[in-house]
């Protein structure tokens, strides 16, 4: 497995592959930005809590259940308010941008390779990210693993990679998967014979 610390550096290692498959979160954009965007949306719905977005982020950084903690501290922790905040967060239209140079990288690669994306998460949230980042035009196949049959199909499940291989008609050994999470991203592709590139992202939430 190759390790890089800048997503743009992946281009150096793609000479021997015909298909490049990317992870999404913390690989093509900063998931921290998505979290901040969601907290800003939630804060707009609770104007009675001053500086709510900052309070949510502070709780998040302390690895606490941010929405629960902030609503509790404000004295309005009801099931209805929790559900309202959670739904706003999940259904947000995220204000996020790809990492610098990502669009140019994908533009170059799509003229030379087949491109795919495999990402885990709630479909509505993942597709909202993809739309906001304007990534769809670059990829021949995008798989949100939950759409294959639920959370059981998230990485390290092999199914998404097998579906991708059939869709792109490229042998596994000529495919590479690029991700940021060594705990789950590379188990399936390595087992299937794919090449792998680990983006050791200093900005990542779950790097490692």
General description of the model:
- The protein has 208 residues and is of the alpha/beta class.
- It has two domains: 2-29 and 98-199, HAD superfamily/HAD-like (Rossmann fold, 3-Layer(aba) Sandwich), CATH 3.40.50; 32-90, no CATH class.
- The chain has helices spanning 31-45, 52-61, 66-74, 79-90, 102-110, 123-133, 159-168, 187-192; strands at 2-4, 19-22, 114-119, 141-144, 175-179, 195-199.
- A six-stranded parallel sheet has the order 1-6-5-2-3-4, sandwiched between helices.
- Helix 6 links the parallel strand 3 and strand 4.
- The model has no long low-confidence stretch (mean pLDDT 97).
Outline the fold blueprint.
Blueprint: E1 2-4, E2 19-22, H1 31-45, H2 52-61, H3 66-74, H4 79-90, H5 102-110, E3 114-119, H6 123-133, E4 141-144, H7 159-168, E5 175-179, H8 187-192, E6 195-199
CATH fold description of the largest domain: Rossmann fold
Main pleated sheet: 6 strands, parallel
Q: How many structural domains are formed by the residues?
A: 2
Distance between the termini: 13 Å
The number of helical runs is: 8
Secondary-structure-based class equals alpha/beta
Rg value: 18 Å
User: What's the average pLDDT?
Assistant: 97
Fraction in helix: 25-40%
Strand order of the largest sheet: 1-6-5-2-3-4
Measured by DSSP, the beta-strand proportion falls in: 5-15%
Indicate the CATH class of the largest domain: Alpha Beta
Shape: elongated
Low-confidence stretches: none
- What is the H/E order? EEHHHHHEHEHEHE
CATH superfamily of the largest domain: HAD superfamily/HAD-like
CATH architecture type of the largest domain: 3-Layer(aba) Sandwich
Number of strands: 6
Describe the oligomeric state of these chains in a short phrase: single chain
């Amino acid at each position: 497995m190759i390790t890089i610390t800048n997503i743009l550096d992946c281009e150096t290692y793609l000479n021997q592959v015909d298909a490049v498959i990317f992870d999404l979160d913390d690989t093509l954009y900063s998931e921290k930005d998505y979290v901040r965007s969601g907290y800003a949306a939630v804060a707009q719905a609770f104007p009675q809590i001053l500086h709510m977005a900052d309070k949510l982020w502070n709780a998040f950084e302390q690895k606490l259940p941010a929405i629960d903690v902030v609503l509790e501290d404000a004295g309005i922790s009801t099931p209805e308010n929790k559900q309202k905040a959670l739904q706003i967060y999940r259904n947000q239209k995220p204000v996020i941008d790809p990492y610098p140079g990502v669009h140019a990288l994908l533009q170059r690669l799509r003229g030379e390779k087949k491109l795919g994306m495999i990402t885990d998460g709630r479909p509505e949230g993942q597709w909202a990210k993809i739309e906001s980042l304007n990534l769809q035009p670059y990829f021949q196949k995008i798989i949100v693993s939950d759409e294959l049959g639920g959370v059981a199909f998230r990485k390290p499940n092999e199914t998404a990679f097998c579906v991708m291989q059939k869709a792109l008609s490229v042998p596994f050994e000529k495919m590479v998967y690029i991700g940021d999470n060594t705990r789950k991203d590379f188990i399936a592709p390595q087992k299937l014979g794919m090449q792998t590139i680990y983006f050791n992202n200093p900005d990542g939430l779950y790097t490692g």
